[in-house]
Amino acid sequence: MSLNRLIPVRIAGFSMIEILVTLAITTIGLVGLASLQLQATKSTSDAGSRSQAIWMLEDLGNRIRANSTAYDSYSTGGGAFNCGGGQPKICSSYNNGAASITADLSCTSQEQAASDIWEVACGTPANINGRLTRSSAADFLANPQLVLTTGAIPKSVTATLSWDVRTSGVDSDGNAIYAVTNDGDVSRSSITMVFYP
Prior knowledge:
The protein has two helices and seven strands, in the order H-E-E-H-E-E-E-E-E. By secondary structure, the chain is an alpha+beta fold.
């Protein structure tokens, strides 16, 4: 007598449990892929912001070295530079979108320092008939804050540039969504460089 005759064969397809297990595993995999994509997007945004900040600080460092006689005029007094405090005399040539503006050659070293800080932190004004224009490197960072302090021995300028860390797109009101810490504060990244003029 063969054992095959005693066992009835009733395999006729997939059972409901097999289908549910397959569906659960597939769902977990797809959620993992979506999470990976979001993390990659955030990392790309953070890397772009960091590159922009480094470029801005290198630009400022070159300006400080070119105007080393007034290195102590590059201090912001320990606080973040305020772009809303009024534009100083711009001491370098630039294009405002409509025309080339020639540098004011009567600038002192201190006025040049104020102009340099303004151009790096705030940018020169753009005059493009009612259009949204990004005219400065700082326009590409979320809420940038530039803090400059000077040291006497050795002569140095410490520059710290910080910005909000973006995590995803916009909310239903069109506002950018940023990472928030457990305390409810917006998460920020920063870079500090020390320049010796």
